Amino acid sequence: MAETPTASQTVGPFFSIGLDSFLRKEVFANGSGDRVTVRGRVLDGHDQPVPDAVLEIWAPGTGTDECTAEGYPVGFGRVATNDLGEFDFVVPRPPGSEHDGRKHAPHLAVLVFMRGLLRHLVTRLYFPDEPANALDPVLQLVPEERRRTLIATAAPEKTAEFSWDIHLQGEQETVFYEV
Amino acid sequence: MKLPIFPKLPAGTQPDYLHPPYKSSLKRAPTRPLIAIPQTFSERTGPVFGHAAVQASDCDLTAQHAEPPAGERIVVNGHVLDEDGRPVRGALVELWQANAAGRYRHKGDQHNAPLDPNFDGYGRTITDSEGRYRFLTIKPGAYPWGNHHNAWRPAHIHFSLFGAGLLSRLVTQMYFPGDPLLPHDPIYNCVADENAKRRLISAFDWGNTTPEFALGYRFDIVLRGRAATPMEK
After folding, report:
1. Of A38, A96, A119, B88, whose CA is between 20 and 30 Å from B131?
2. pLDDT given for residue A101 in this prediction
3. Which of A22, A3, A74, A80 shows the shortest CA–CA distance to B161?
Protein backbone atom coordinates (compact mmCIF):
# COMPACT_ATOMS: atom_id res chain seq x y z
CA MET A 1 0.00 0.00 0.00
CA ALA A 2 1.38 3.41 -0.92
CA GLU A 3 1.92 5.72 2.05
CA THR A 4 2.73 9.42 1.85
CA PRO A 5 5.79 10.44 3.85
CA THR A 6 5.12 12.41 7.03
CA ALA A 7 5.45 16.18 6.63
CA SER A 8 8.60 17.88 7.85
CA GLN A 9 8.55 20.58 10.54
CA THR A 10 11.31 22.92 11.64
CA VAL A 11 14.00 21.66 14.00
CA GLY A 12 13.43 24.88 15.99
CA PRO A 13 15.94 26.73 18.16
CA PHE A 14 16.28 24.12 20.91
CA PHE A 15 17.36 21.08 18.88
CA SER A 16 20.52 20.60 20.95
CA ILE A 17 18.39 19.15 23.76
CA GLY A 18 17.47 16.19 21.58
CA LEU A 19 20.28 15.96 19.05
CA ASP A 20 23.19 16.45 21.42
CA SER A 21 24.18 12.81 21.75
CA PHE A 22 25.45 12.64 18.17
CA LEU A 23 26.81 16.21 18.03
CA ARG A 24 30.58 16.06 17.68
CA LYS A 25 33.22 17.58 15.50
CA GLU A 26 34.79 14.30 14.50
CA VAL A 27 32.84 12.41 11.87
CA PHE A 28 32.63 8.81 13.08
CA ALA A 29 35.23 6.63 11.39
CA ASN A 30 36.97 3.32 11.67
CA GLY A 31 40.71 3.04 11.06
CA SER A 32 42.99 5.93 10.31
CA GLY A 33 42.72 6.99 6.69
CA ASP A 34 43.28 10.53 5.40
CA ARG A 35 41.27 13.10 7.30
CA VAL A 36 40.47 16.66 6.46
CA THR A 37 39.14 19.58 8.49
CA VAL A 38 36.36 21.77 7.12
CA ARG A 39 35.62 25.17 8.68
CA GLY A 40 32.94 27.63 7.71
CA ARG A 41 30.03 29.82 8.60
CA VAL A 42 26.30 29.77 7.95
CA LEU A 43 24.90 33.16 6.86
CA ASP A 44 21.32 34.34 6.41
CA GLY A 45 19.73 36.74 3.90
CA HIS A 46 21.09 39.77 5.79
CA ASP A 47 24.56 38.20 5.71
CA GLN A 48 24.20 37.72 9.44
CA PRO A 49 25.65 34.60 11.06
CA VAL A 50 23.14 31.87 11.92
CA PRO A 51 23.93 30.79 15.50
CA ASP A 52 21.36 28.01 15.63
CA ALA A 53 22.01 25.81 12.61
CA VAL A 54 22.84 22.13 12.73
CA LEU A 55 24.60 20.37 9.86
CA GLU A 56 24.70 16.66 9.18
CA ILE A 57 27.55 15.33 7.12
CA TRP A 58 27.52 12.07 5.25
CA ALA A 59 30.79 10.87 3.75
CA PRO A 60 29.54 8.33 1.19
CA GLY A 61 31.70 5.30 0.65
CA THR A 62 33.73 5.69 3.84
CA GLY A 63 31.82 3.04 5.72
CA THR A 64 28.37 2.21 4.44
CA ASP A 65 26.52 -0.22 6.70
CA GLU A 66 29.20 -0.01 9.36
CA CYS A 67 29.24 1.06 12.98
CA THR A 68 32.22 1.87 15.16
CA ALA A 69 32.95 -0.53 18.01
CA GLU A 70 30.82 1.76 20.22
CA GLY A 71 27.84 1.51 17.85
CA TYR A 72 28.18 4.90 16.16
CA PRO A 73 27.58 5.20 12.42
CA VAL A 74 30.76 5.36 10.35
CA GLY A 75 30.84 8.27 7.91
CA PHE A 76 28.22 10.34 9.73
CA GLY A 77 28.75 13.61 11.56
CA ARG A 78 26.53 16.23 13.16
CA VAL A 79 27.75 19.71 14.13
CA ALA A 80 25.99 22.84 15.38
CA THR A 81 27.04 26.42 14.65
CA ASN A 82 28.32 28.59 17.51
CA ASP A 83 27.17 32.11 18.42
CA LEU A 84 29.19 33.48 15.48
CA GLY A 85 27.56 31.10 13.02
CA GLU A 86 30.79 29.10 12.74
CA PHE A 87 31.17 25.35 12.45
CA ASP A 88 34.05 22.97 11.93
CA PHE A 89 34.37 19.24 11.56
CA VAL A 90 36.94 16.57 10.79
CA VAL A 91 36.01 13.97 8.21
CA PRO A 92 37.65 11.04 6.45
CA ARG A 93 38.41 12.17 2.93
CA PRO A 94 35.75 10.33 0.90
CA PRO A 95 36.66 8.28 -2.17
CA GLY A 96 35.12 8.97 -5.55
CA SER A 97 32.65 6.44 -6.85
CA GLU A 98 31.53 4.97 -10.13
CA HIS A 99 27.95 4.00 -10.91
CA ASP A 100 25.46 4.32 -13.72
CA GLY A 101 28.61 4.06 -15.84
CA ARG A 102 29.89 7.46 -14.73
CA LYS A 103 32.58 8.69 -12.40
CA HIS A 104 31.43 10.77 -9.43
CA ALA A 105 33.92 13.12 -7.79
CA PRO A 106 34.62 12.73 -4.06
CA HIS A 107 32.18 14.84 -2.07
CA LEU A 108 30.30 15.10 1.20
CA ALA A 109 26.52 15.15 1.33
CA VAL A 110 25.40 17.87 3.75
CA LEU A 111 21.96 18.37 5.32
CA VAL A 112 21.18 21.78 6.83
CA PHE A 113 18.63 22.29 9.62
CA MET A 114 17.68 25.43 11.55
CA ARG A 115 14.85 27.47 12.99
CA GLY A 116 13.21 29.11 9.98
CA LEU A 117 13.66 26.06 7.74
CA LEU A 118 10.46 24.05 7.67
CA ARG A 119 12.32 21.34 5.73
CA HIS A 120 16.02 20.65 5.83
CA LEU A 121 18.20 21.63 2.89
CA VAL A 122 20.35 19.20 0.92
CA THR A 123 23.68 20.27 -0.54
CA ARG A 124 27.14 18.91 -1.29
CA LEU A 125 30.70 19.88 -0.58
CA TYR A 126 33.34 19.15 -3.22
CA PHE A 127 37.10 19.48 -2.83
CA PRO A 128 38.99 22.05 -4.92
CA ASP A 129 41.93 19.80 -5.76
CA GLU A 130 39.94 17.04 -7.46
CA PRO A 131 40.30 16.77 -11.23
CA ALA A 132 37.17 14.57 -11.23
CA ASN A 133 35.04 17.64 -10.43
CA ALA A 134 35.18 18.62 -14.08
CA LEU A 135 33.24 15.52 -15.11
CA ASP A 136 31.04 14.98 -12.06
CA PRO A 137 27.51 14.38 -13.40
CA VAL A 138 25.79 16.12 -10.48
CA LEU A 139 28.05 19.16 -10.44
CA GLN A 140 27.47 19.49 -14.19
CA LEU A 141 23.74 20.01 -13.56
CA VAL A 142 24.59 23.24 -11.73
CA PRO A 143 25.00 26.43 -13.80
CA GLU A 144 28.72 27.07 -14.07
CA GLU A 145 28.64 30.42 -12.25
CA ARG A 146 27.07 28.81 -9.17
CA ARG A 147 29.33 25.73 -8.94
CA ARG A 148 31.84 27.57 -6.79
CA THR A 149 29.26 27.64 -3.96
CA LEU A 150 29.69 23.86 -3.68
CA ILE A 151 33.48 23.72 -3.84
CA ALA A 152 35.44 24.30 -0.64
CA THR A 153 38.50 26.57 -0.59
CA ALA A 154 41.88 25.16 0.43
CA ALA A 155 43.18 26.86 3.57
CA PRO A 156 46.43 28.70 2.85
CA GLU A 157 49.52 26.65 3.74
CA LYS A 158 47.51 23.79 5.22
CA THR A 159 47.22 20.61 3.25
CA ALA A 160 44.27 19.03 5.01
CA GLU A 161 42.08 22.01 5.79
CA PHE A 162 39.30 23.59 3.77
CA SER A 163 36.85 26.42 4.26
CA TRP A 164 33.28 26.41 3.03
CA ASP A 165 30.50 28.87 3.90
CA ILE A 166 26.79 28.26 3.47
CA HIS A 167 24.83 31.28 2.23
CA LEU A 168 21.08 30.80 2.57
CA GLN A 169 20.28 33.74 0.29
CA GLY A 170 21.91 36.56 -1.66
CA GLU A 171 24.50 36.90 -4.40
CA GLN A 172 26.47 33.93 -3.15
CA GLU A 173 23.45 31.76 -2.31
CA THR A 174 24.59 28.16 -1.96
CA VAL A 175 23.16 25.65 -4.40
CA PHE A 176 20.59 23.42 -2.70
CA TYR A 177 19.31 20.25 -4.28
CA GLU A 178 15.93 18.65 -4.83
CA VAL A 179 16.51 14.90 -4.71
CA MET B 1 24.26 -3.99 -2.29
CA LYS B 2 20.51 -3.30 -2.06
CA LEU B 3 19.55 0.32 -1.69
CA PRO B 4 16.13 1.95 -1.23
CA ILE B 5 14.50 4.03 -3.93
CA PHE B 6 12.80 7.31 -3.15
CA PRO B 7 9.74 8.26 -5.23
CA LYS B 8 9.03 11.91 -5.88
CA LEU B 9 7.10 13.50 -3.00
CA PRO B 10 3.39 14.15 -3.71
CA ALA B 11 2.72 17.89 -4.26
CA GLY B 12 1.64 19.87 -1.21
CA THR B 13 2.52 17.18 1.32
CA GLN B 14 5.74 18.86 2.45
CA PRO B 15 6.11 22.53 3.45
CA ASP B 16 7.56 25.11 1.11
CA TYR B 17 10.76 26.69 2.36
CA LEU B 18 9.32 30.20 2.26
CA HIS B 19 6.19 30.46 4.39
CA PRO B 20 5.70 34.18 5.18
CA PRO B 21 3.40 33.66 8.21
CA TYR B 22 6.43 31.99 9.81
CA LYS B 23 8.72 35.02 10.13
CA SER B 24 11.98 33.14 10.59
CA SER B 25 11.60 31.66 7.10
CA LEU B 26 11.92 35.08 5.43
CA LYS B 27 15.70 35.44 5.72
CA ARG B 28 16.55 31.76 5.88
CA ALA B 29 14.59 30.11 3.06
CA PRO B 30 16.56 29.80 -0.18
CA THR B 31 15.39 32.24 -2.85
CA ARG B 32 16.58 30.35 -5.92
CA PRO B 33 14.89 27.22 -7.19
CA LEU B 34 16.36 23.99 -5.92
CA ILE B 35 18.36 22.10 -8.53
CA ALA B 36 16.95 18.65 -9.25
CA ILE B 37 19.57 15.93 -9.22
CA PRO B 38 19.36 12.16 -9.69
CA GLN B 39 19.51 9.90 -6.66
CA THR B 40 23.06 8.59 -6.49
CA PHE B 41 24.99 6.36 -4.14
CA SER B 42 25.38 9.38 -1.82
CA GLU B 43 21.66 9.87 -1.23
CA ARG B 44 20.59 6.22 -1.30
CA THR B 45 23.13 5.16 1.33
CA GLY B 46 23.25 6.57 4.83
CA PRO B 47 24.44 6.09 8.38
CA VAL B 48 23.61 2.94 10.32
CA PHE B 49 22.89 3.49 14.01
CA GLY B 50 23.84 0.58 16.20
CA HIS B 51 21.88 -0.35 19.28
CA ALA B 52 25.01 0.33 21.33
CA ALA B 53 24.58 4.06 20.76
CA VAL B 54 21.22 4.04 22.54
CA GLN B 55 20.49 2.76 26.07
CA ALA B 56 17.18 1.04 26.81
CA SER B 57 16.52 3.67 29.52
CA ASP B 58 16.78 6.49 26.95
CA CYS B 59 13.11 6.02 26.05
CA ASP B 60 11.85 6.89 29.55
CA LEU B 61 11.91 10.67 30.02
CA THR B 62 10.31 10.34 33.44
CA ALA B 63 13.18 8.38 34.98
CA GLN B 64 16.23 10.55 34.28
CA HIS B 65 16.34 11.96 37.83
CA ALA B 66 15.78 10.78 41.38
CA GLU B 67 12.23 12.18 41.44
CA PRO B 68 9.59 12.00 38.70
CA PRO B 69 8.94 15.18 36.67
CA ALA B 70 5.84 17.33 37.21
CA GLY B 71 3.00 16.94 34.74
CA GLU B 72 0.69 14.48 33.11
CA ARG B 73 2.46 11.19 32.34
CA ILE B 74 1.87 9.94 28.79
CA VAL B 75 2.92 7.02 26.61
CA VAL B 76 3.88 8.14 23.10
CA ASN B 77 4.19 5.26 20.67
CA GLY B 78 3.78 4.32 17.05
CA HIS B 79 5.07 2.58 13.97
CA VAL B 80 7.72 3.87 11.62
CA LEU B 81 6.82 2.77 8.09
CA ASP B 82 8.24 3.18 4.62
CA GLU B 83 6.23 4.25 1.56
CA ASP B 84 5.20 0.64 0.94
CA GLY B 85 3.72 0.53 4.45
CA ARG B 86 6.48 -1.83 5.58
CA PRO B 87 8.05 -1.40 9.03
CA VAL B 88 11.35 0.47 9.17
CA ARG B 89 13.47 -1.55 11.56
CA GLY B 90 16.47 -0.11 13.32
CA ALA B 91 15.47 3.52 12.67
CA LEU B 92 16.97 6.05 15.06
CA VAL B 93 14.22 8.09 16.75
CA GLU B 94 15.33 11.13 18.76
CA LEU B 95 12.85 13.30 20.62
CA TRP B 96 12.87 16.55 22.59
CA GLN B 97 10.24 18.72 24.18
CA ALA B 98 9.31 21.44 26.67
CA ASN B 99 8.34 20.51 30.22
CA ALA B 100 4.77 20.52 31.56
CA ALA B 101 4.98 24.30 32.10
CA GLY B 102 6.05 24.97 28.51
CA ARG B 103 9.74 25.61 29.21
CA TYR B 104 12.74 24.01 27.48
CA ARG B 105 15.94 23.20 29.31
CA HIS B 106 17.97 25.44 26.97
CA LYS B 107 19.87 28.68 27.56
CA GLY B 108 17.99 30.31 24.70
CA ASP B 109 14.56 29.73 26.24
CA GLN B 110 13.66 32.86 28.21
CA HIS B 111 9.98 32.06 28.75
CA ASN B 112 8.97 32.97 32.28
CA ALA B 113 7.84 29.50 33.33
CA PRO B 114 9.58 27.21 35.80
CA LEU B 115 12.24 24.73 34.83
CA ASP B 116 11.64 21.29 36.27
CA PRO B 117 14.74 19.92 38.04
CA ASN B 118 13.42 16.42 37.29
CA PHE B 119 12.91 16.82 33.56
CA ASP B 120 15.54 17.16 30.83
CA GLY B 121 13.14 16.68 27.93
CA TYR B 122 15.06 14.35 25.62
CA GLY B 123 14.92 10.72 24.67
CA ARG B 124 16.01 8.36 21.92
CA THR B 125 15.38 4.85 20.80
CA ILE B 126 15.81 2.44 17.90
CA THR B 127 12.70 0.93 16.29
CA ASP B 128 12.16 -2.78 16.91
CA SER B 129 11.69 -5.62 14.42
CA GLU B 130 8.13 -4.39 13.66
CA GLY B 131 9.19 -0.76 13.26
CA ARG B 132 7.72 0.25 16.62
CA TYR B 133 8.95 2.84 19.09
CA ARG B 134 7.64 3.75 22.54
CA PHE B 135 8.45 6.60 24.92
CA LEU B 136 7.22 7.37 28.40
CA THR B 137 7.19 11.12 29.01
CA ILE B 138 4.99 13.96 30.28
CA LYS B 139 2.65 16.10 28.20
CA PRO B 140 4.51 19.28 27.18
CA GLY B 141 2.93 22.66 27.87
CA ALA B 142 2.05 25.30 25.27
CA TYR B 143 4.31 28.36 25.29
CA PRO B 144 4.44 31.86 23.82
CA TRP B 145 6.89 32.86 21.08
CA GLY B 146 7.78 36.06 19.27
CA ASN B 147 6.44 35.35 15.78
CA HIS B 148 3.52 37.80 16.05
CA HIS B 149 1.35 39.42 18.73
CA ASN B 150 0.07 36.86 21.24
CA ALA B 151 1.66 33.95 19.37
CA TRP B 152 1.54 30.59 21.17
CA ARG B 153 2.94 27.26 20.04
CA PRO B 154 0.51 24.38 20.51
CA ALA B 155 1.83 21.59 22.73
CA HIS B 156 4.21 19.52 20.61
CA ILE B 157 7.04 17.02 20.73
CA HIS B 158 9.97 17.31 18.31
CA PHE B 159 10.90 14.10 16.47
CA SER B 160 14.05 13.35 14.50
CA LEU B 161 14.27 10.14 12.45
CA PHE B 162 16.87 8.35 10.40
CA GLY B 163 15.74 5.32 8.40
CA ALA B 164 17.51 3.61 5.51
CA GLY B 165 19.37 6.01 3.23
CA LEU B 166 20.09 9.72 3.58
CA LEU B 167 16.82 10.65 1.87
CA SER B 168 14.78 8.98 4.60
CA ARG B 169 15.88 11.72 6.99
CA LEU B 170 12.96 13.44 8.69
CA VAL B 171 12.62 16.08 11.40
CA THR B 172 9.05 16.80 12.40
CA GLN B 173 6.75 17.69 15.30
CA MET B 174 3.93 15.71 16.88
CA TYR B 175 0.82 17.55 18.09
CA PHE B 176 -2.06 16.57 20.38
CA PRO B 177 -5.68 15.99 19.33
CA GLY B 178 -8.16 18.77 20.04
CA ASP B 179 -5.58 21.48 20.73
CA PRO B 180 -7.33 24.86 20.25
CA LEU B 181 -4.02 26.50 19.26
CA LEU B 182 -3.54 24.39 16.12
CA PRO B 183 -5.58 26.58 13.72
CA HIS B 184 -3.46 29.59 14.78
CA ASP B 185 0.01 28.06 14.50
CA PRO B 186 1.98 29.04 11.36
CA ILE B 187 4.36 26.09 11.75
CA TYR B 188 1.63 23.44 11.89
CA ASN B 189 -0.22 25.21 9.07
CA CYS B 190 2.77 25.34 6.72
CA VAL B 191 1.63 22.09 5.06
CA ALA B 192 -0.82 22.75 2.21
CA ASP B 193 -2.28 19.26 1.98
CA GLU B 194 -4.96 18.89 4.69
CA ASN B 195 -4.44 15.14 5.10
CA ALA B 196 -0.68 15.46 5.38
CA LYS B 197 -1.14 18.22 7.94
CA ARG B 198 -3.64 16.31 10.06
CA ARG B 199 -1.29 13.33 10.22
CA LEU B 200 1.00 15.47 12.39
CA ILE B 201 -1.63 15.20 15.14
CA SER B 202 -1.28 12.12 17.32
CA ALA B 203 -4.34 9.99 18.12
CA PHE B 204 -5.54 9.26 21.61
CA ASP B 205 -4.68 5.58 22.11
CA TRP B 206 -6.84 3.52 24.49
CA GLY B 207 -4.81 0.43 23.71
CA ASN B 208 -1.67 1.95 25.17
CA THR B 209 -3.37 3.84 27.97
CA THR B 210 -2.12 2.21 31.17
CA PRO B 211 -4.70 1.89 33.97
CA GLU B 212 -3.99 4.10 37.00
CA PHE B 213 -0.81 5.38 35.32
CA ALA B 214 -0.68 7.15 31.94
CA LEU B 215 -2.72 8.12 28.86
CA GLY B 216 -1.54 6.79 25.51
CA TYR B 217 -0.97 8.71 22.28
CA ARG B 218 -0.18 7.12 18.96
CA PHE B 219 1.92 8.82 16.29
CA ASP B 220 2.74 6.76 13.20
CA ILE B 221 5.47 8.10 10.97
CA VAL B 222 6.14 7.39 7.30
CA LEU B 223 9.68 7.89 6.05
CA ARG B 224 10.66 8.39 2.42
CA GLY B 225 11.79 5.24 0.67
CA ARG B 226 10.50 2.05 -0.89
CA ALA B 227 11.65 -1.54 -0.92
CA ALA B 228 15.30 -2.04 -1.60
CA THR B 229 16.31 -2.89 -5.12
CA PRO B 230 19.72 -3.99 -6.32
CA MET B 231 21.88 -0.99 -7.19
CA GLU B 232 22.11 -0.79 -10.96
CA LYS B 233 25.61 -0.81 -12.32
Report:
1. A119
2. 85
3. A22
Of A113, A112, A119, which Cα lies nearest the Cα of A164? Answer: A112
Tell me whether residue B36 is in a domain.
no
Of A179, A178, A177, A175, the residue nearest A165 (C-alpha): A175
User: Could you give the angle at the alpha carbon of A12 between the alpha carbons of A8 and A15, nearest 5°?
Assistant: 105
CATH classification of the domain holding B147: 2.60.130.10
Partners of residue A177 in chain B, C-beta under 8 Å: 34-37
CB contact under 8 A, A119 and B14: yes
- Average pLDDT on B39-63 reads 89
Side chain identity at residue B226, one-letter code:
R
Strand partners, A178: B36
B149 is catalytic: no
| B143 is an active site residue | yes
Q: pLDDT-based confidence at A134, cuts 50/70/90?
A: very high
Has residue B196 been placed in a domain?
A: yes
What are the sequence ranges of the domains in chain A?
16-167
Query: How many domains does chain B fold into?
Result: 1
Q: Between A137 and A67, whose confidence is greater?
A: A137
Q: Is the pLDDT of residue B231 over 70?
A: no
Catalytic, B104? Answer yes
Query: What's the whole-model pTM score?
Result: 0.96
Q: Which of residues 150-169 of A touch B (CB under 8 A)?
A: 168-169
| B110 contacts: CB under 8 Å, gap ≥ 6 | none
Would you say residue B226 lies in a domain?
A: yes
Residues of the domain holding B128: 2-31+41-106+114-230
Domain A16-167 CATH assignment equals 2.60.130.10: yes
List the catalytic residue out of B22, B104, B188, B217. B104
